[in-house]
Specification:
Elements (H helix, E strand, L loop, with lengths): L2 H18 L5 E6 L5 H16 L3 E7 L8 H14 L4 E10 L2 E8 L1
Parallel strand pairs: 1-2
Antiparallel strand pairs: 2-4, 3-4
Length: 109
């Protein structure tokens, strides 16, 4: 076999392999504890789109000022998101506090 033809075949196979792979990205969705229902539903729909593309979604709930005193409101918002997406996503990292933020990481099924 000709060496030039052999190298051509190898590069051709590598090109096809690169084309067919999908890199998983982590998309972040930021929310506040006093989010309205419409805004919440809008962000959940975005998360569904991200799961459809094969990405992971990190929900971050940001506390500002004295909101940090009411962590239960923030935890309730994230629990609501977890329940809304339980059919198409699994929890990779449960709700945890990172400074003034609460976050959780979900992966599509």
């Amino acid at each position: 076999m000709d060496y030039g033809k052999y190298r051509y075949e190898i590069t051709k196979r590598a090109k096809v392999a690169r084309k067919n792979r999908h890199v998983t990205h982590i998309k972040e969705i930021k929310m506040r504890p006093e989010i309205s229902d419409h805004d919440f539903n809008f962000k959940v729909k975005h998360a569904e789109e991200f799961f459809g593309r094969g990405d992971k979604v990190k929900f971050t709930l940001i506390f500002r000022g004295r909101e940090i005193l009411h962590k239960d409101h923030g935890r309730a918002v994230l629990e609501r998101a977890k329940i809304a997406l339980q059919e198409i996503a699994t929890v990779e990292t449960d709700i945890r506090q990172e400074g003034r933020n609460l976050s959780m990481l979900l992966t599509g099924k």
